[in-house]
What does this fold into?
Amino acid sequence: MKWTGYIKAKRDAAVKRYGADVAVKAWADPVFKAFTPANGQPFQVEGYATTDAVDLEKEVILPEGIDWQSYFAGNRTMFVDHEYDVLSAVGKCRSLKLTPKGLICTSVLIGGEGENRKRDWVEKLARLYTIGHSVVVQRIESGKPTKEEAARYPGAVMITRKSKLIEISYTPIPMNGECQAYAVADEAATMNQQPATATKARRKIVFLG
It folds into this structure.
């Protein structure tokens, strides 16, 4: 399936579920931390949920305009590919960090290995740094780029300046055109007010096509 068909199918499902002007955006940057902190603790995944890059639909969702408190923070469930069934609810978001580049999501997987096939595949792909995140946001304020925005985001035809975070999924499907692992900046603002920890960048992966 081409990315246009994939995104349309996911958007249609999200609109049916949430009944609002929603955007489904997958960030192509693979996760840059995936590990088990200690024996008995859940597997942890960390990576960018979204950034301000121009995506394949030529839209930019400004991370600083995303409201993650009013809806998402009350549940924090992480799904697989925006499938809203019980087996696809495989994780919980522990924190969100706003950096100059974008929104970083730190999450843990629910359950143990062998209990859920979808959960196991997320862990396997995360260990290989070949899985990323996809967000569903409700557009609150969006429109054509201003002169300043057009200069900052060449090629963009829509800027979503304010939005509400609805859901985050694990996905290998790229939507955002950039694809490079980055270290986390110490100046990150976090959901739980804990300072971000700088991490070593892994490797650069380029998606073609």
